[in-house]
Amino acid sequence: MKFKVDEELCIGCGACEGSCPEVFELVDDISTVKLNPVPEELQEGALEAEVNCPVEAISHE
Ligand code: SF4
Asked: DSSP 3-state assignment of 16?
């Protein structure tokens, strides 16, 4: 499963990094995906971060 952060939408709130730091990292106040594809054991946390993103900037395929 691959994850993506829309840089135009991300407001740098840090929620995804806070809940799933293994996958998401803020760089210059924009979230980036450190691991792609996201390993199976981290997918649940990444999906949770996606659901909880306040501006729906995270997506996956
Ligand atoms: S939760 Fe959403 S808005 Fe907040 S840093 Fe992550 S991608 Fe950006």
From this structure: helix
